[in-house]
Model the fold of this input.
Amino acid sequence: MLGDISGLERIYIVCGYTDMRKSIDGLCAVVEEQLKLDPASSSLFLFCGRRRDRIKALYRDADGFVLIYKKLTVHGGYQWPRKHSEVRNLTWREFDWLMSGIDIDQPKALKQE
Done:
């Protein structure tokens, strides 16, 4: 089913600014060149622009790449790490926090065992 990300093994947040004009091919190039990862792996890659009010999500399904675009319509922005050298693998809980506009670096959040 198009847009079903529940079967993906990993979620990566791509730190730093991403040019939100990039399409699937451009984002795949970012994953390959900057992150040294395979964009066709069973992973979801999240990108955010300079304004922090939009996210693009890229993943490969059975027959091609899927690009999901989300723009916030409320005041504020996503809490997004900016170091280009850092690739972060998110848990599903952190992904849910991120998509809800909550800071993913929760110092008081309980760790899963």
DSSP finds two helices and five strands in the chain. The first strand starts at residue 10 and ends at 14. The chain has a mean pLDDT of 84.
